[in-house]
Amino acid sequence: MTITLAPMEGVVDVHMRDMLTRISGFDLCVTEFVRVSQVVAPAEWYFKYCPELKTDAKTRAGVPVHVQLMGGEAQVMGDNAAFAVELGATGIDLNFGCPAKTVNRHMAGAALLQWPEKLFEICSAVKKSLPASVPLSAKMRLGFEDKSLALDNARALQEAGAQKLTVHARTKLEGYKAPAHWEWIAKICEVVDIPVVANGEIWTPEDAQKCREISGCHDIMIGRGAIARPSLAREIKGGEFAQWAEMLGWLEIYCALMQDTKRPKWGEGRMKQWIKLLGRTYPEAKQLFDRIKPMKDPAAINAIVMNEAREVGICA
Ligand SMILES: Cc1cc2nc3c(=O)[nH]c(=O)nc-3n(C[C@H](O)[C@H](O)[C@H](O)COP(=O)(O)O)c2cc1C
User: Fold this and answer.
1) In terms of C-beta distances under 8 Å and separation of at least 24 residues, what long-range contacts does 153-156 make, across chains too?
2) Atom of ligand 1 nearest to the CA of 202
3) By the 8 A CB rule, do 231 and 239 touch?
């Protein structure tokens, strides 16, 4: 079984990938989408979204990171994929699931699920532009407003040369509302031969098992569940749940990384965001969040986290 850390714009950046892959259990990461339209995006963009391109496209823990592209123009997508490979990308993923209105208005992300032929065109152009050694995957939702084209879309992506398909088991209209329709992933598995990765609403090891049973997939992708419960992938593979004391140790490292960034306001936002989401698993994180909520300075938040760590005896 492989477990992929889901791409999550504004959440899963280089630092979060670093933390979660060090906590372990993940086999692959996918970057936040790189939005491409009309031209080849500058190299800085690629390095911004995937600084790991400078380290063999792997996280510090050695887990590969693939670059996700999102756009609606086939040739431009192909040219961008080729450029990403020149910069060091070792795998390209295509986004056909983003529900954002501005993106969909410009015929990208989930909007494209209304036209299987368009998915085929984009995916074929990217496939042609890639060397055979660089794998191409695609990530789709079950549809835009309904699921009527789910199977056609999956088939189109396979025919166009996608070597793996991740399915977020909801339509764009269903947004992020539970449940995820894992039984639809099973229907997709019946019509394609490429590996299918199941995604959506995996929050616990039990969810992972149920999702694999219902979808029939070996492989899974986890998004929000990994942020709220960072040891989830490790647990699914038989490892230990991270107790709060361990989590505080990771939070300390994360806070130090955020403090080092040149954008303190951004660092403060990211720390609060993670600690808030951890509140889903750890009551201690909820209390910690209430304390740091009014704070504006990452150094002050760091001091509180270090103090907590000292109190539970994990800090020198
Ligand atoms: C804040 C946020 C940002 C996301 N950004 C992306 C993205 O950049 N690319 C993508 O393919 N999916 C993106 N997604 C969708 C996730 O990758 C995933 O498919 C979805 O959250 C369902 O999985 P989960 O229930 O495990 O979170 C995003 C989801 C969230 C909540």
Assistant:
1) 153/96, 153/113, 153/116, 153/119, 154/188, 154/191, 154/192, 154/196, 155/116, 155/191, 155/192, 156/116, 156/117, 156/119, 156/120, 156/123
2) 26
3) yes
CA separation for the pair 117, 215 (Å, rounded): 26
At residue 262 the predicted structure's pLDDT band, cuts being 50, 70 and 90, is confident
User: For the chain, give me the number of helices (H) and strands (E)?
Assistant: 14, 8
- Ligand 1 contacts CB of residue 224 (under 6 A): yes
Residues of the chain with CATH 1.20.225: 244-311
- Alpha-carbon span 280 to 172, nearest angstrom: 25
Q: How many Å apart are CA 135 and CA 285, to the nearest integer? A: 39
Ligand 1 centroid to residue 150 C-alpha, Å:
18
Atom of ligand 1 nearest to the CA of 139: 11
Q: Which of 168, 172, 215, 276 to mutate to test the pocket of ligand 1 (most atoms within 8 A of CB)?
A: 168
Rounded average pLDDT over 105-134: 97
What is the band of 261 on the pLDDT scale with cuts at 50, 70, 90? confident
| pLDDT of 289 strictly over 80 | yes
Instruction: Quote the ligand 1 centre to 165 CA distance (angstroms).
Output: 15
Given pLDDT bands bounded at 50, 70 and 90, which one contains residue 316?
A: very low
Domain 3-236 = CATH 3.20.20.70: yes
Distance CA 165, CA 179 (A): 20
Indicate the class that CATH gives domain 244-311. mainly alpha
Q: What is the pLDDT of residues 25-37, one digit of tens each?
A: 999 999 999 999 9
**Which pLDDT value is given to residue 309?**
81
* Model confidence pLDDT, tens digit, residues 51-70: 999 999 999 999 999 999 99
Q: Which two tokens stand for residue 73?
A: 């123009």
Domain with CATH 3.20.20.70 in the chain: 3-236
